């Protein structure tokens, strides 16, 4: 039996909400990054979030400026870094210059229990909103919940197609991924990352945008996502104030959890690509990071050419670099980092 106080909530309206402003202004940047990094979560994958239009308009596939990748082994500098990788780096708590990433091919799927828990949390959340819309006899509230469900489902299908693209690429390179190369990457915030991995995986996954498999289906899901977002913007504003407030609370909480990557398996992208991260010593200086790369003279010359290291005429710097970061010191640094695997 439904208490008489619950249906009366439909008449509660001490103030008004700007629903369209909430949906279009808040959370867009955070969701662009959190969803665009293609990381799976055992908690937030199936939750409705703010800023869902960033998925519908393919913002998650637009490159982020300011990232530069230096392929020291091959003497190549690249600025066209894959969108998912820049977003992955932006969401990882990197050290200033000590973090090392190793790219590996490994079958590392999110456990079935985690996938089921993510779906269950999403269904429970949507179910609660649906139940409140029913008991308050709010027709617009029902439409609001339905539009959120469409947005969530279409978002998951879109992201799944992008992950599948990376899986397909890795599968095609599994027999011959190429020799390992040494990479050094700088980020817009001044941080730097050392990367080791097979040459073809670097070229095909880090320097090539993920192309969604089944492009026609992908396009249909984008249209469904737009439809869900548009319907959500309209129906949320037309719903009873109680259901509006309840929806906004759920959206804010889900957006916060998603932006904080709660339950995320950050080391796996799709089911084939594994990124092993060694955070290293936070106090490691840039010079020690360079020495750790064990560069040849030719490779050092490339770094000089890219202005990542001083010109050879700066004898003071080079003498200090070689004396300060001797092999014994770098070995001790590496030993410390080896105890800080994540």
What does this 3D model show about the protein?
By secondary structure, this protein is an alpha+beta fold. The protein has two domains: 7-66 and 110-175 and 212-277, no CATH class; 286-338, no CATH class. It is 51% helix and 10% strand. It contains 13 helices and seven strands. The protein has helices spanning 19-25, 28-36, 53-56, 83-90, 112-135, 139-173, 199-206, 215-238, 241-259, 286-292, 297-305, 315-324, 327-338, and strands at 68-71, 76-78, 100-105, 180-186, 192-198, 268-269, 273-278. The chain has a seven-stranded mixed β-sheet. A hairpin with a 5-residue loop joins strand 4 (180-186) and strand 5 (192-198). Helix 2 (28-36) crosses helix 4 and helix 6 (139-173) runs antiparallel to helix 8 (215-238). The longest helix has 35 residues, at 139-173. The radius of gyration is 24 Å and the shape is elongated. The chain starts with 18 loop residues before the first helix and ends with a helix. The relative contact order is 0.19. The chain crosses the membrane at residues 112-134. Keywords: Membrane, Transmembrane, Transmembrane helix.
For the biggest β-sheet, the strand order reads 2-1-4-5-3-7-6
Low-confidence stretches: 328-342
Please bin the fraction of helical residues. 40-55%
How large, in whole angstroms, is the Cα Rg? 24 Å
Order of helices and strands: HHHEEHEHHEEHHHEEHHHH
* Total beta strands: 7
- Strand-residue fraction? 5-15%
The whole-number mean of residue pLDDT values reads 88
